[in-house]
């Protein structure tokens, strides 16, 4: 049996580019996730679905409240290859399930970076999470789903 979790979209203007006379829309794809705690699950958390991120990333305030199985320490690198843009992270196994207002997926164990800051959003990346599903995104109609 397959579970299809609907995705949501947000779209807003980049105000810095607008000041320069350039109209540039930023579109994000979102889902809700609940993460395993020592007793029960978190409330539904808004997460960005990011096919450009090789791994999921959880902000510090969130991961301090959930069950994690630390595996190693690593360095998170972004698109800018400068050392001052790197920051240390822990890599851990987490458990969670995706949901929309109508249904939820089965619990999934996945790898994630545990960020040392809250200045980043909750990101669901490819390895061991999105790689376990079918992802459908139609930006023209702003519709999408994840199917497990």
From TrEMBL:
Family annotation (InterPro entries): Aspartic_peptidase_AS (IPR001969), Peptidase_A2_cat (IPR001995), Peptidase_aspartic_dom_sf (IPR021109)
GO biological-process terms attached to the record: proteolysis
A molecular function GO annotation: aspartic-type endopeptidase activity
PROSITE patterns with a match to the protein in the record: ASP_PROT_RETROV, ASP_PROTEASE
Keywords recorded for this protein, A-Z: Hydrolase
Domain Peptidase A2: 45-79
Protein name (record): Peptidase A2 domain-containing protein
């Amino acid at each position: 049996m397959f579970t299809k979790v609907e995705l949501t979209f947000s779209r807003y203007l980049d105000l810095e580019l607008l000041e320069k006379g350039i109209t540039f829309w930023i579109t994000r794809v979102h889902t809700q996730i609940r993460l395993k705690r020592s007793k029960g699950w978190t409330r539904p958390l808004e997460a960005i679905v990011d096919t450009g991120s090789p791994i999921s990333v959880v902000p510090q305030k969130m991961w301090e409240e959930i069950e994690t199985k630390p595996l190693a320490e690593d360095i998170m690198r972004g698109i800018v290859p400068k050392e001052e843009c790197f920051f240390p992270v822990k890599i851990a196994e987490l458990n969670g399930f995706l949901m929309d207002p109508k249904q939820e997926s089965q619990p999934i164990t996945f790898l994630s970076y545990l960020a040392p800051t809250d200045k980043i959003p909750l990101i669901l990346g490819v390895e061991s999470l999105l790689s376990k599903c079918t992802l459908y995104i139609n930006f023209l109609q702003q519709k999408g789903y994840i199917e497990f």
